[in-house]
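call fold(seq) -> tokens
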Amino acid sequence: MPNEQSKAPSTPHRFPHSMLSEIYEQPHAMGECIYRNVKGDCIFPEALRSFDNAIFACKKIIIAASGSSRHAGLAGEIMMEDLAGIAVDVEYSSEYCYRSTHADTEPIVVVITQSGETADTIAAQRQALRRGAKALAISNVADSTIAREASATLHTFAGLEKAVPATKSFTSQLTILYLLALFLARQRGRITAGVVLAHLGSLSALPAEIEKALPCWDAQAAGCARDYQHAKAFLFLGRGVHYAIAREGALKLKEVSYVQAEGLPTGELRHGPNALVDEKLPVIVLATRDSADADSVLRYEKTLAVLEYIQSRGGKAIAIASEGDRAVATLADRVIQVPSATELLLPILEVVPLQLFAYHFATLNGCDVDHPRNLVKSVTTE
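ret:
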């Protein structure tokens, strides 16, 4: 069964920083998230019972989150729209309270937070409840303010995260959002129980795939960091669901190394930001593909054209590509390959090399990755 396959062993290695340790703990954290939230082919067997009627009635889901949690929400938006056929909007927690008070009260409002104590997200959830909406919290801390006050809570079970930058909590959020998308799709009659099991099997295989790939990714990311150690700015590009990971990769690099980094939809490069492209500005491009998905292949082909453009302008590109891809290797200066996966699961694989790149770039430049300046683990004041 999927939940029996997913529990990955925790790594026995010793690490110089909590951030690196927690990157390596991601297979175990993901496996625990799946194991604790799936029983056979039943997803969230207890947690969402109070939501049954709301799930059938709602026409929209609103996600409110901040920082890395919002980037997980951006990926979750596409997962839920594609699998469950339900409209999803993603809000910044800090902006949600200031939207029109005439907003529809029927949506389910999903708040995402690692700590469960983020002030902006608590305020967003309380506002949603005052407006009569059902509030579903996704949190890594069971006994937190958000978890206690929500209509229902989904726990990510990532375990204690000591480093300020989110790593294993982020991939666990992606995991639970994928599970939520499958749950909604099944409950709303969009997919059969057999299809759910197939998706769960694919998801449950990822922890072992990541565990196997981590040492190679670590070495490759360290090499990329050495190549571009003195760069002062980076662009990260991704299409569709991968845009969320471009945003997260840029944020991770900003948080730990203090260099400017921006995540953009790949197709937007030539609408202004291409003015920045030269030999001094590395561009990190998410160029994976699901060869069984025609839309994914089309996005990939368009991404190849952007890599060609960067190359023609003398730019430097680092690509995250699917294993066995030879075309990308001719267009990028550095390539890190990830295992093959379905389109909506590729983000979980892609983000890990980006976390490792941020870690190595920052440590090479003498930064304290566990306690970056001006940052705290949970922003408890608005």
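The longest strand covers residues 316-322.
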